[in-house]
Amino acid sequence: MTRHTASAPRLIRFNKPHGVLSQFTAEGAWRGLKDFIDLPDVYVAGRLDADSEGLLLLTNDGQLQARIADPRFKMDKTYWVQVEGVPDETALAALRQGVMLKDGMTRPARVRPLAAPPNLWDRDPPVRMRKSIPTAWIELVIKEGRNRQVRRMTAAVGFPTLRLVRVAIGPYGLEGLGLGEWGDVGVGGLG
Asked: 38, 41, 49, 103: which one is catalytic?
């Protein structure tokens, strides 16, 4: 069912901090989007776990929301993932081929190691790391959106996720947004 609105189509990019739900209402210790975005009639297009950070899209256009979130139209989602340990080529190849999870095989992912940690904001609270175990960053691109999929994929190949930041959904990225900031995508970007 298409959501109709009297206002012009709008697409919002939001740089979601750790500890914020992908909904306007807060629950328990988790904050809601209303702490950052005070706009009527916009809805989340896709979700991002409270313990993950980065790009979240919101819109007032039901058709656009479906194109972004509906499984039939899944857009590439790009993540920067800090993992415990340093993934070897065997682990990266497994991610590229797809890994078996409890809810079935994932689609193949695009994955590459990042030579240096990305230039990101500090996370609050900081990631807890063990001094005796190194960490590494990878870029992982998937088209699916299963519950906690990226975390489950990295764990399945032996490298648990410590920090997860979504940096892009299709053509939309975080460029120019500080942590907790939002901005409109130009009308030409609604296609």
From this structure: 49
